[in-house]
Amino acid sequence: MTQLEGTGVMRTRICSVDEIPPGTTMQCQVGGRSVLVANVGGTFYAVDEECTHDGAPLSDGDLEGPTIVCPWHFSRFCLRTGSVLESPAREPLRTYAVDTNGGEVTLLTTPAGTGVDPQVR
Q1: Distance of alpha carbon 118 from alpha carbon 101, whole angstroms
Q2: What is the sign, positive or negative, of the torsion defined by CA atoms of 28, 80, 111, 11?
Q3: Could you tell me the sign of the dihedral formed by the alpha carbons of 1, 63, 115, 112, in that order?
Q4: Of 52, 60, 56, 21, whose CA–CA distance to 38 is shortest?
Q5: Which of 16, 17, 57, 66 has CA 20 to 30 A from 42's CA?
């Protein structure tokens, strides 16, 4: 984990882009949090890995385009925004900015482990 100078933003290398083929996900630990990283047609997204409804591991769920489906109660979440697309979940997922420059998947977080706006690179 490295800090971007003067920003308070932390960069955490997850893996190479080749380790998460299109249409797949990977669960990883970032700053003590379980995070799901998804490759949707070459675009990478990262969200908290636990469903906000009942704590199911979303890495066991189905990836349907930019949507992740909870394996337990079938809540659906938008990977772009973290928003709930279908209940029973009511709370959105935390999202994280993902940088793939240099062929590496890197997550950007604050020192407290919170996500950074996905537009920040």
Answers
A1: 14
A2: positive
A3: negative
A4: 21
A5: 57
CA distance 100 to 103: 6
Unique residue bearing structure tokens 């083929």: 21
Pick the CATH number of 2-109 from 3.50.30.60, 3.40.50.300, 2.60.40.10, 2.102.10.10: 2.102.10.10
For CA atoms 98, 50, 88, 23, the dihedral sign is positive
Residue 24 pLDDT > 90, yes or no?
yes
How far apart are alpha carbons 67 and 89 in whole angstroms?
Answer: 14
Domain ranges for the chain, please list them: 2-109
